[in-house]
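During the practical work, I worked with a single protein chain and the tokens that describe its fold, as given directly below.
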Amino acid sequence: MIALAGLDLTDRLVVCVGAGRVAERRIERLRAAGARVRIVAPEATERLAALASAGDIEWLARPFDAGDLDDAWFCHTATGSASVDALVVDAAETRRVWCVNAGHGGKGTARLAAETTSGDVMVGVVSTAGADPRRSVAVRDAIASRLAEGALPLRRRRRTPVGGVALVGGGPGPVDLLTVRARALLAEADVVVHDRLGPTGVLAELGDDVELIDVGKRPQHHPVPQDEINALIVDRAARGLRVVRLKGGDPFVYGRGGEEVIACRAAGIPVEVVPGISSAIAVPSAAGVPVTHRGVAGTLHVVNGQETPSEATLAALRDDTATVVALMGVSALPRFVAAARAAGAPESRPVAFVENGHTPAQRTIRTTLGTAIQDAETHRLANPAVLVFGEVARADLLMPVPAMAGEGAG
């Protein structure tokens, strides 16, 4: 009868007999679990030899001796010799040390589970009807896929004295552009504090008992002041709850994530930052506008479009090899364009406005600096929109260059 157990191997000796490719993979797992690893083998792979030279593992470069197990908590044998593996298993049994026989799983006293981890939850799969690693891996992979989708219940049922806050970058909006880590944290969340923009579609997938708090700005709904948001996430975490602060884009790109990190740290609340795809890159990309392109633009300048352009921004607007991306800049577009033109940016500079990026309502307006204001008015440009200034905004940039007549003939 097989019992699945979670062993704490931290700073405990694990003896690995054999130091080939199979052992190398297993030793990586054991080291990740915090074990002190001793290998016993006349020869070792280059990777294991390097670890031994660095002092990360112990290597006894000789054949196995039963006394090698005297201080061991766990054992793994993968020598390639059935008789030697059997000898190791017998020696371990005598010393009451659990032993994995990699060459014949059914003849060992333990098996390593096929593992997957999501946050602080580890799932292990073993077969109870004889060793069947391919089957265990297939089941493990299916569970891992569901965990990555945030489809399995990972919320803690027991509160801790102090919870935690995760500032999660949700990317430009589509749920399938959320990172695996973002999905896992949402599946664990007790409270989700969210904005208007970002992957709000994922909220419908959360449990009915997850507290959803909307702090975003939209018509007839004024945004919650930042200091109140800070107090809110700290308050919920101080109650032992897991809080996800879900933002569009990236928390540290005009997301005021830094202020929230400071508030959490000041209150002694554990805080994690999960990056997301910034709209400064993702939205132009959705419209076929690369913010850098070899031989065209090698510098990217991201600005808050509501602010008066700085000297650095104006210099970038004049630079033929720079791209300027302005976020939140629709209302201040006339002032922004006027400042650029007054600073000497060419009237012919290509410009692209990408409205409602990564949504069914996405629209791209191609223009130039000289006609940008007129075209924005004609097409009734509205938020949310990302404004791109630079040669990368040319409509023909990514079109293949036609071959010259007769090229390739021979």
Observations:
- Residues 394 and 400 are 13 Å apart (CA to CA).
